[in-house]
Design a protein that fits this description.
The chain is an alpha+beta fold and 221 residues long. The protein has helices at residues 2-15, 29-40, 59-66, 73-78, 96-104, 110-127, 134-158, 171-180, 213-216, and strands spanning 51-56, 81-88, 162-166, 189-198. α2 (29-40) packs across α7. The longest helix has 25 residues, at 134-158. The protein is globular, with a radius of gyration of 20 Å.
Length: 221
């Protein structure tokens, strides 16, 4: 059984490729829910969950995003589903979202909360040097969304669904579009990346290529 699982995992990573053009087949809702649950249940730094995942089905908004997203032209037209990965802004150690992340995990006594928040304060001020830098705080939460992004793509591939992560777009303009349509409150969150999902129209022209394993993975004893 374990060997079957190992083989399935390896086959999965061989199957997965960045798909630009999809066919017209729709992903069943139960499969989409499984992919989205992979994002929802993903780990995040200090358990913050400073993210949201929006399944974008509104054709007007998609058309507007297409105008400013050079890296998503064909995906916006052909993908079965299109997901926006949003990241929280200003997730400081003393923010309400940081406090609520502790409460969700069962830490409710004020003394215990303050002790944990002091640890986060030291982390943000001393280690990351980002507590008073709004851009650095956003980058911190945006990086965490990539954990969820990877999990969604992996889970999609395991059930035969293709995907493509997308960063090729004008971030300011996409944020403006999302704010205009009430999808985000721009002072609270912003776009981190996008993900298209569906079934490939054709197999890739070129075989999967990677750097030599020994260049990428090393041991230091």
């Amino acid at each position: 059984m374990a060997e079957d699982i190992k083989k399935a995992i390896r086959d999965n990573y061989t199957f997965r490729t960045a798909v630009r053009v999809y066919n017209n087949r729709k992903i069943p809702q139960e499969d989409l829910d499984l992919i989205l649950d992979a994002a929802w249940l993903s780990p995040s730094s200090v358990g913050l969950e400073g993210w949201r995942f929006v399944v974008l089905t509104n054709e007007t908004v998609k058309a507007e995003i297409k105008e400013v997203a050079w890296g998503a032209q064909y995906q916006l037209e052909t993908a079965s589903h299109f997901i926006l990965l949003l990241a929280e802004r200003n997730a400081r150690y003393d923010s309400e979202s940081m406090r609520q992340s502790l409460v969700r995990r069962g830490i409710t006594e004020e003394e215990a909360i303050l002790k944990r928040l002091k640890t986060y304060e030291d982390f943000q001020k001393r280690d990351m040097k980002m507590a008073d830098n709004p851009r650095a705080l956003f980058d911190w939460t945006a990086k965490q969304t990539y954990i969820a992004l990877g999990n969604m793509m992996t889970n999609a591939a395991l059930i035969g669904i293709d995907s493509c992560p997308i960063e090729g777009f004008d971030y300011d303009k996409v944020n403006s579009i999302l704010a205009k349509h009430g999808i985000i409150k721009p002072e609270q969150e912003g776009i981190a990346s996008m993900l298209s999902l569906g079934y490939r129209l054709r197999d890739p022209k070129h075989p999967q290529s990677r750097k030599p394993r020994e260049e990428v993975i090393t041991y230091f004893d």
